[in-house]
Each structure stands twice: as C-alpha cells, then as structure tokens.
Amino acid sequence: MDEELYQAFITESEESITRLNNSLLELESNPEDTDAIDEIFRQAHTLKGNFGAMGFDNAATVAHAVEDLLDEIRHDRLDVTAERMDLVFDGMDEILEILHEIDEHGESRTDPTELVEEIRAAAEGDDGSEAPAGNSDAAAADGSAAADSSSPAAETDVAALTRDVLDGGTVAGADHLYHVAVELDTGEMKGVDAGLFLGNVPEEFDVVGADPHVDSIERGEFEDGFSLFVANVPGEELDATLSGLWKVESVECTDVSGAFDGAADAGGAKPEADADSETDADAGSDSPATDDTESVVADPSAEVDPEEAEAAVEALAAFSGGESDDAEEAPEADADAPESDAVEADAGGDAPAAESSADGGDDASDSTASEAEEKKAKKGKKEKGRSISAVKSVRVDVDQLDQLHELVEQLVTSRIKLRQAMEGEGTGGETGLDTLDELDKISTNLQNTVMDMRLIPLKKVFDKFPRMVRDIAREQDKRVRFKVEGEDIELDRTILDEISDPLMHVLRNAVDHGIEMPDEREAAGKSRTGTIELSARRQHDTVIVTVEDDGGGIDADAVRDKAVSKGLATREEITELPDEEVYDYVFHPGFSTNDEITDVSGRGVGMDVVKTTVESLDGSADVTSTEGEGSKFTIRLPVSVAIIKVLFVSVGDREFGVPIKYIDEISRRQRVETINAAEVVVHEDRIFPLIRLRNALDVDIDESDSGMVVRIRPEDRQVALHCDRVTRQEEVVVTPLQGPLSGTRGLSGTAVIGDGNVIPILDVSTLELPERGRRAMREWTPPSTGEEGATDVEEAAD
C-alpha cells in the first residue's frame, strides 16, 4: 500500500473525527440547526466511506451505525437527547481508538459489535420496540425478508415497484422521477465495489430511494444489480453519468414520473399516520433511503483479500476526487464553532429529557445502574490511555515554498562566490568578508522562512478540548459553557505537541474542581451554567494562554493547611505568605486540597506536569484566584524554542545568556535602592527585588563594586538581575538540559557559541529570590504624592 496515501488517511481521519466532535457539540446545544445536522451527516458519511475503502471494516461498521442514528435525527424521526448524543460520541471514541491501533500496528482487532448494537437500537427508538437491541439475528432476518420481498426479481412492474419503495408525498413536487436499474461487475468484495460506485454518485443527484435498501447495497446484499430512484435529473444525464462510474456493466433508466398518478392507495405506498410513533418495529428497515448515497462500506463479515483491498484503495484515489475535496473544505465549514459559546454540556436536571418507553420503563430502570457502571468503566479505561496525538503533518503555503527555493538558490550562488574569494579569484573587488555578509543575510532569511513554516495554529490542539469538557461535565452532572478565543495564534510545532497535555490537565481541573454543581451555583446567586474560557494572545515573542473559570475559586487557607500537613512549609512561614504566593503550591507534585480522590483530577494532581512541562519549554505558569468568583491559570510560552536571541552577561570571568524576550531595561547599578533591608529597583511605583547572579548561581567569584542591572518584564517575573558586565547580543541554538541536570533551578539549557564554548542560558522564572526581596514585595506600598516618610528608601552604596 502506498505509504503516502496511508499516512494521509490517518491524518485526515483524525481531523475529520475532531471536526465531527465539535459539530456534534454544536448540534447538541442547538438541535434545531438543520445546517449543522446536514454537515455532520456528510462528514460521517465521508468518514465511513474512507474506512471502508481502506478495508478497516470494524471502524466503517461503527461509522455506519452512527450515520443511521444521525439519519433518524436528521429526518425528525428522533429528537436530540443527551443520551443519544452520548452514544454518538461513544462511536466517535471507538473509531478514534481503532484509528490509533491502525496507526500503531497497521491493523485493528477491536470488535465493536456491542456498541454497534446499542447505537442501532437507539436508531430504532430504543423504547421497547418489537426488535430488541440484542436480537441481531432476528433483525438481520427481517432485513433479508424485506429485501427479498421487494427485490427486482420478485417485482416485474417498475411502476408498482416505485410505489412500493417510495412514498408519493416525498416526490410530489419532482419534475422528473427515474427508476435506474444498475448492474455491476463485482468481485468477491461486493460491498466495497458497490460502495465505490455509490460514493461517486454526484451530490446534486437527488437519490430518493433504493431497492434493496442502501444499507443492504453497501453490505453487498444484492444479486447482479439493484435499483435507484432519482428525482429531478433528466434521463440522458443520468445514463451518461452513471454509466462511467466504478464497475458499471449496464444502466437502464425508466421514467416513472407518473407512477403515483391516481394510485395514492395502491402499490403498497406507506401511510404517514404513524410517523410520530417511535415504537414502530419496522422504522429501521422500511425507512426510505437517504438522499445522500456516497458511502463506501465493505461487508464486515467478509474476509478481505489484501490485494483486492489495495486495488480498492487505488480505485478510491482515482475515482473519489469529490470526496477528498469535501474533506479539505470541511474545516472551513466549522472553523468558527469554537469561537462561540455554543459548546455547552448540560447534565443532571437541566439535561434534555431522554425519551422513555410508555410500557416497560420499570424493567429498563432495573438494569440502568449496572449498565451505567459498565459504561463508565469502559470509558474510564479509554480515557486514561488517551492523549492528544502529536502533530505529524503541516500544510505549507506555496509562496513559502517558492521563497525557500529562491533562498537556496542564493545560498548556492554565495557558496561559489565565497570559494572563489578564498582562492583569490574574486571579481569586481569582492572579498571573502563581503560574501560572508551576504551569506549572513541569506541564512537569516532562510531561518525565518523555515521557522514560519513550522508554526501551526493553536486550533490544532484547541479543537480537541470542547468534546473533553462536555464529557466531564456530563459525568459530573454539571452545566458548562466552554469558550475559545485566539485559536489562530501560531506556535512552533514542537511547543504545540508539548503543551497539549498540560492544557488538558488544567481544563479537566477547571471542570472538576472549579465549576460548582448547578444547585450550588444557584444558591450563590450565579447562573446554573458555569463558564470556562480558553484564550490565547501574542505578545512580542511570547504566546500567553489562559484558562479562566467562574467557579468557586481556590481556598487559600485550605492550601495553607494542606501545605503544612504535607511538610512543605511551617505554619509560621505560610501564614506570612500572601494568597498570590500560596496558590503556587497547587503546582507541587501530588498536592490537592480534596480529601476525596476523583477519577478526573484534583488541584495539584497533574498540575505539577503543567509547571514542569512549561518551564522545560522556557515558559512560565502561574495561577490567580478569588474565592467564590473563580480561578485563572496563565501559561506563557515562547513562539519558538529552537533559535533565540540572548543577551550575554558575565559574573567575573563566567558568561551566561539571558533571553532578550524577558528583558525590559538595562541600567547601571546606581539605580539599586534599599527598602526594608532589601535591594530593589523602583520603576513606575513598582519594586523589582534584586537577584545577584553570583549568589543565585553559587558562583565562587567576588563581584566588582560596580555592575549592571537587567530588569525583567513584570509580566514574566517582577525581579531585576545584577551582573558585572553586559557584553553583547547574539542568536543561539538552545539545547535543553538532559539527564541529572534536567530541572536545575535557574538554568533552562545551554548554547554553543562561535568559539566552541558552552554558555548556560538562564531561566529567569526559577532563579532563587532572596527572602528579604520576597518580604519587601509583600510590604511595599507606593509612596503617595506629597507625603514624606511613607516608605524607608535609601540609596544603596556604590
């Protein structure tokens, strides 16, 4: 199998599942959105076809069942309920698990039969209908009987067949109605061949019915041919188009536009009196075929020959261009979905009521608890092993490729000129230094172009979260409105991969312990629906990601008590700390203020992963909170970690690098003042406690009496660094610390400079701040204009 096609299948399928999840959330929050259900149905249809064409029948079977349930909702035969949406989402999860197995092992052995039966039972009404969910053999027998009784061989009168298959009301306004008899030259994989044919029927062809049913055709349950009923397409166009499709031996079109003239009560036309009854046992088998027949599903019971499967895949690539185009257009269709606040998970008393059976309801309730426990166990098992997959492909703008090609051409030309200059053959007075300057410009442009190509929108990660938030809220009977902003902000691919799991921990934490139960919120005068907002914005070379909720906030005193009980601080020490510093304890490994451990998260359970991962990326994480009003987690990340510009500073004869993006100002030591015995720099009514690098890095060198002060931007950390000298600025490639050096306080990595020396790169967020400096920040009060003696300020000795 073509490896490129295989990888494209994996990537596009994962993207389709993500889009489907978010579109389904839109439908759940707004069941009347007919455009949403049409888009969802098309996406599910394409997903089913792709898996079927690749020969992965277990996933195709699940997608087929989901499609059937969605089709019932689409035609208003079933309502959107939280329970039915749970089943649809379970189907999406099953397909994703199968996809991960395929990606890892090249195949999948998952048997989705039980889930498929649940979904199909829901599609039939799930309310005590005559065909129970578990009786798959009986259902299959009924389907076969229906197919046999209305097959082309048993029905010679085309008009009577039309009346038997179709409802005259559905085609009353059609200008044309044609019966199309199709014969295919099928191999052993009849379902795949039929699916490939149906998948290439143009979307504008209004297929209003089929005999046997479309589902049976896709399973290969037909003899040499089958019938389609197409409305509003001229016969000559039908014949010309369908004759050229996959495996077609013959197409015969018969005009049946007058089949229902004067025959409203003849030929087995279906009455609509029972349309609202969802307990009709035949609702699933006798429903009209959908008007969307692009599916591609192989018979799940058939053995798949690898060579035929590969041939089917090649055929799909050759014949299903329209379907591929649809897959590309899909992101634009729902690109704005996360921007709205429509992703709302309703549960408990506020969830849409599930439809219940008028009789047999008590029997159903007897097994509800055990079934719920079983489903929860299965879901928990999947959830624990699930992680957001790494970005494996990027889309590159053609202009960037052209620019890259042009720069490479310039690079080759400059290399030749440099060689000539070194050999003394340069012309026009050109020297090696001139060529080096030229090379410097080219390499800079080349670097910028490549770095831009590595940037990927946060949407790639953010799109995974609405579904996760919805599921946790459902499990906990909470109501949550999830908002997303800034998803178009771009980050380097490496950072994007690393930040996915930390963000997942923060969001799970916000739903589990941030948002209160609906009754509790109402008693506190809040809306019963809580709000969680995930946002991102760009600030210079930094991306700031925040997760903010309007929940109960963090109890600072509870954090203090837990910190003391765990031996992290003494009662005296932690009592002196302001709440802002106390909240940082939630990032300590295993720290939680909850006595009861939940399956989802806890304040601090997983939060140490957030802190550790973000700091390893040369970023920072902090939290602010107001009890009773909510919490806000802020994560600052560099746009790229591969190449950064640093300021070189020295302490004695030791040199260190400080990332330029963190620096706000460089000044001489004369600006240092003493406030309450602490060395600080005062700037705009703020104090910046001084960190002497000699002490913080334990450098055994005497500092000179004079020196320089590097003030850090307050949004990154409100401190100033003291060094002996500031030397130069330079771009360097940073290598993170590995092995036993990993996690060293004050250092984020190393860089090799031009002379071969290794320079440590400082991590300004973890440099140790003297206790006097921390105390000075807590006690600082900006001096009021015209008042004397407000604060004891003395100029430090030079």
TrEMBL record:
Give the Low complexity compositional bias ranges: 130-152, 345-359
**Residues of the Histidine kinase domain:** 433-641
* Keyword list, A-Z: ATP-binding, Chemotaxis, Kinase, Nucleotide-binding, Phosphoprotein, Transferase, Two-component regulatory system
HPt domain mapped to chain residues: 1-102
Location of the CheW-like domain: 643-773
GO MF terms here are: ATP binding; protein histidine kinase activity
Domain of life of the source: Archaea
Q: What is its EC number?
A: 2.7.13.3
For this protein, what reaction is catalysed? ATP + protein L-histidine = ADP + protein N-phospho-L-histidine
Phosphohistidine PTM sites in chain numbering: 45
A biological process (GO) of this protein is: phosphorelay signal transduction system
Q: Which SUPFAM superfamilies does the record match to this protein?
A: ATPase domain of HSP90 chaperone/DNA topoisomerase II/histidine kinase, CheW-like, Histidine-containing phosphotransfer domain, HPT domain, Homodimeric domain of signal transducing histidine kinase
Where is there biased composition of kind Acidic residues? 274-294, 302-311, 323-344, 789-798
Q: Where is this region: Disordered?
A: 124-152, 262-384, 773-798
Q: Mind telling me what this protein is named? A: Chemotaxis protein CheA
Species in which this protein is naturally found: Halopelagius fulvigenes
Task: Please spell out the taxonomic lineage of the organism that makes this protein.
Answer: Archaea, Methanobacteriati, Methanobacteriota, Stenosarchaea group, Halobacteria
